[in-house]
Amino acid sequence: MSGGSYYVPASSKWPIFAGLALAAMLVGLGILLVYGWGSWIMGLGGVAILVVMGLWFRDVIKESRGGLYDAQMDRSFRWGMGWFIFSEVMFFAAFFGTLFYVRTFALPWLDGEGAKGVSALLWPDFAASWPLMNPPGSEIEGPRGIANPWQLPLVNTLFLVTSSITLTIAHEGLKAGHRDSARNCLIVTLILGVCFLLVQGFEYYEAYAHLGITLQAGIYGSTFFLLTGFHGAHVTVGAIILASMLWRLQCGHFERDNHFGFEAAAWYWHFVDVVWIGLFLFVYVF
Q: Boundaries of each Heme-copper oxidase subunit III family profile domain copy (predicted)?
């Protein structure tokens, strides 16, 4: 490249370690759900992911602070983050697609409607409804109740929407050189994210203890925990990233016109917020 050089990062072992840690966590989760044990495998995988994230962040920060990145690398990072968020969009689209398929096709077919209404011969007495409180087959017990969308889910929606606003203010403050304002708004954003996770934990307790919403409560319980659980995992990762951005901000790392690490964290957090709006509408309200 004329006028300079293009920095090629050294080969990194962290993607491989991150994949192994994620695989261990998911294998542990699968064993736990099927056989009732494996929580320690899942826990080790989760801890390993946190360690890998910390060490990976450390290396990238060192390279950035060492002045190794140029405009071309900045474009590479932006494209990479864009494709990563696109892959996350597809990830959640698969689960939203499952919810759509079940509600629009599978349940009406089992009730005798549509092109495959012959499926009603399996359970002649089944009546389709959503939320599915009485699943077909006596071996599956449906939930006893459903969460009121205008209570805890609405509170969590307000938390995340407000956190997007405060994060935007923090970003604009950083671009304007107002580091104290950016730091304070980022702290508020992080607090709101933690509050979201605490409220969701309480909601899960209520679902299990009082509403009978479990992974064994038919398709409603399965889709509920798949969608909200994976979203909660993404909020957790986003909160960890925001915490690292807060630490970097405290260390004086970012500049007004050179802070893509902060910007990428903001992209990710806004994506997580948009996904929650979809969850609130299609899992809780409609």
A: 2-286
